[in-house]
Design a protein that fits this description.
Blueprint lengths: L8 E8 L5 H11 L20 H6 L6 E7 L2 E7 L7 H8 L4 E7 L6 H12 L3 E7 L8 H12 L7 E4 L4 E4 L13 H14 L4 H10 L1 E3 L9 E6 L2 H7 E3 L2
Parallel strand pairs: 1-3, 1-4, 4-5, 8-10
Antiparallel strand pairs: 2-3, 5-9, 6-7
Helix pairs in contact: 6-8
Bound molecules: guanosine-5'-triphosphate and magnesium ion.
């Protein structure tokens, strides 16, 4: 392992209900960061994190797996956790090892039991929280309705960093782009709301510029291409600048 200054290390736990797509997303992130040559698949039993024979045969995670990759000189330590309630102790333990909880939501299923529990448990630990709405490419997904449900459940401060575009084939970054086309809402509106919120939490322009320069930007393509980071909370100003996953 190379040497990384503390400010160039991020620790993130992927948490959320079973089958929301955490392991698949981990693969996409590893592949995009070139830590692996191509993303594996849960169905084929070829993912980095579900390496146990039982995980491969059951096709879901049983234990927390620690992964890492580098992006623009920043080392990301990612913990992929199981979402099924029987194994949730592994995910709760992971929260104590990270600064950020990325709560993955299945766009088809909406907010599920473990979604809400994880948001609560991460808040109790004063972690940065972000929500990733995954599987927006699946059938019968109403992304606007999901955003409304997230805001109703977790607060209006949950703002979209990315919005779906081109019929959910890609997303548009609302943090760095002041305008653009999206499937619902408006990039201009979302951008303005994010900037207002960052200003509200007291981040000065110079800090914003610096955060944008240092920001972790991971591009995601492939199967888990529908992973979208939707919102920030907790220390939201800092989190929104630090993490921008741009499919
Ligand atoms: N259509 C679609 N399917 C996806 C996406 N991401 C994951 N899947 C599928 O959803 C299923 C569950 O994916 P996993 O990555 O195992 O989900 P998980 O959250 O790790 O599940 P647990 O380990 O049980 O908590 C698999 O069949 C994946 O291929 C996506 O973005 N779109
Ligand atoms: Mg998994």
């Amino acid at each position: 392992m190379g040497h990384y200054a503390t400010e160039n290390i991020r620790t993130v736990a992927l948490v959320g209900h079973g089958a929301s797509g955490k392991t698949t997303l981990s693969e996409a992130l590893l592949a995009r960061a070139k830590a692996i040559s191509a993303p594996g698949s849960v169905e084929r039993g070829t993912t980095v994190s579900d390496f146990d024979p039982l995980e491969k045969s059951w096709q879901h995670s049983l234990r927390a797996s620690v992964l890492h990759f580098d992006v623009d000189g920043t080392r990301i330590h990612l913990i992929d956790t199981p979402g099924f309630p029987d194994f949730i102790g592994q995910a709760i333990g992971a929260l104590d090892a990270v600064e950020t909880a990325a709560v993955v939501i299945n766009a088809q299923a909406g907010i599920e039991m473990i979604t809400s529990r994880m948001m609560d448990w991460a808040a109790q630990r004063k972690l940065c929280r972000l929500i990733i709405v995954n599987k927006i490419d699946a059938e019968n997904v109403d992304a606007a309705q999901i955003l409304a449900a997230i805001q109703a459940a977790f607060g209006k401060e949950c703002l979209p960093i990315n919005l779906p575009a081109d019929g959910a084939k890609r997303v548009v970054d609302c943090f760095f782009n002041p305008a653009g086309e999206s499937d619902f809402s408006s990039v201009t509106y979302a951008h303005g709301a994010l900037v207002d919120q960052v200003v509200e939490v007291g981040m000065r322009d110079s800090q914003l510029d610096q955060a944008a320069r240092q920001g972790v930007q991971v591009e995601v393509h492939g199967r888990a291409l529908s992973a979208r980071i939707l919102c920030g909370n907790g220390r939201c100003g800092r989190m929104q600048c630090d993490y921008s996953f741009r499919p």
